[in-house]
Amino acid sequence: MTIEQDLAIIAEQEEALVFKQFDASIAWQIGSQLREEATLAQLPVVIDIWLGDQCLFHAALPGAAVANAEWARRKRNVVRLMNKSSYAVGLGYQLSGGSIFEKMGVPVADYATHGGAFPVRIHNSSCIGTITISGLPQRQDHQFVVDQLAIYLERDVPVLPD
To answer: What domains, with CATH codes, occur in the chain?
Structure first.
């Protein structure tokens, strides 16, 4: 699969996985669902859900490291800056041959263009929050979030192949 094909799939995912509304209660439901599925699969991940500048859900599962929370923060910053998933941003820069650090002048310590952070959008709005997983290879981090959002929102979305 090419980077262009991956980016087309991610664009479809982002377009389909939009909320009618989003608040602390919904964040708790989604976070709990993510935690339950990650626990069943014994995934050593950090789960992080934010609405604007407020953390609404955070969990660190067995095997997750402190570094995973730091990676989640850095990925979240990318989504907030670029209004699209951290994986799409990273793939876009990979395709263009640059980096967010060169093009945007942001510090490496605060931004990571690796998969796992996904934008929270409500209809007719830009990114209002983020849902992030950190602890797996970046493609799996991204797809885990997408899979669980598709279940929660009852939407069919294309899947990135392994």
So the answer is: 3-153 (3.30.450.150)
Q: Give, for all 162 residues of the chain, the pLDDT tens digit.
A: 899 999 999 999 999 999 999 999 999 999 999 999 999 999 999 999 999 999 999 999 999 999 999 999 999 999 999 999 999 999 999 999 999 999 999 999 999 999 999 999 998 888 999 999 999 999 999 999 999 999 999 999 999 998
Residue 144 CA to residue 52 CA, distance in Å, equals 22
The residue among 113, 121, 122 whose CA lies nearest residue 142 is 113
Distances (CA, A) of 60 to 17, 19, 70: 24, 25, 12
* Distance in angstroms (rounded) separating the CA atoms of residues 75 and 72: 5
Phi and psi for 119 in degrees, rounded to 5?
A: -75, 140
Residue with tokens 């009618």, as numbered in its chain? 20
What pTM was computed for the model?
0.96
